Amino acid sequence: MNHRTHLTASIDTAAPARALPRRALLAAALSAATAGALATLPRRASAQAAPAAAGTPLEVWKDPSCGCCQDWIDHLRAHGFAPTVHETGNTAVRKRLGLPERLGSCHTALLGGYLLEGHVPAAEVQRLLREKPQALGLAVPGMPIGSPGMDGAIYRGRRDAYDVLLVARDGSTRVFKHYAAQAGKEAA
């Protein structure tokens, strides 16, 4: 019997006896291959997320429906920060962290042991991290037009004057950076 005949004969004669084990073997092999591929997914996902993780991490608390908060988060991300966002509102966390209500805004963030309240520009956050002052953090009370996140096309380049405040642990403040007003473009 040549090789071809022997192979055919063994398949033909053994088919009923081996069909189930072969199918089971193929199913097991397919299952193992799938499990192996799935096991690598978290590593692949984290490898793809590595650039964001390489940025300066911060946590942000905001209302889930607030668009200006998301725009501020995008502003920070564009400047090398890696935000983790909690869509739970910020009132409770602001109170827990000891920020006076008068300094409140629509979102609160924590990074490097500092609190950020409101539409703080990325440049001032970077300065805060470089200088490392003894403070609770930075705040831009309210929602000044022209601040990051409040600078959309609808405002036509307008910027109201506002201060970025350095907030001491006792709640007192001093101006960390003043931003002057800037007139917007006239409506067409």
Task: Give structural notes.
With 188 residues, the chain is α/β, with parallel strands linked by helices. Strands 2-1-3-4-5-6-7 form a 7-stranded mixed β-sheet, with helices on both faces. Residues 1-20 and 22-53 have low confidence and may be disordered. It has 5 helices and 7 strands; from the N terminus they run H-H-E-H-E-H-E-E-H-E-E-E.
Keywords:
single chain, 188 residues, alpha/beta, seven-stranded mixed β-sheet, 5 helices, 21% strand
Summarize the structure.
The chain has 188 residues and is an alpha/beta fold.
Q: Taking all residues together, what is the mean pLDDT?
A: 78
Could you give the count of β-strands? 7
Extract low-pLDDT stretches. Answer: 1-20, 22-53
Please describe the biggest sheet, giving its number of strands, its sense, and whether it closes into a barrel: 7 strands, mixed
Q: Helix-strand pattern, N to C?
A: HHEHEHEEHEEE
Number of helices: 5
Task: Determine the N-to-C terminus distance.
Answer: 93 Å
- Identify the overall geometry: globular
Please indicate the percent range of residues in DSSP E strands (runs of 2 or more). 15-25%
Strands side by side in the biggest sheet: 2-1-3-4-5-6-7
**CA-atom Rg in angstroms:** 29 Å
Instruction: Assign a percent range to the helix content.
Output: 40-55%
* Backbone structural class: alpha/beta
Question: What's the structural blueprint in terms of helices and strands?
Answer:
Elements: H1 3-48, H2 50-53, E1 56-62, H3 67-78, E2 81-86, H4 91-97, E3 107-111, E4 114-118, H5 122-131, E5 137-140, E6 162-167, E7 173-179
Parallel strand pairs: 1-2, 4-5
Antiparallel strand pairs: 1-3, 3-4, 5-6, 6-7
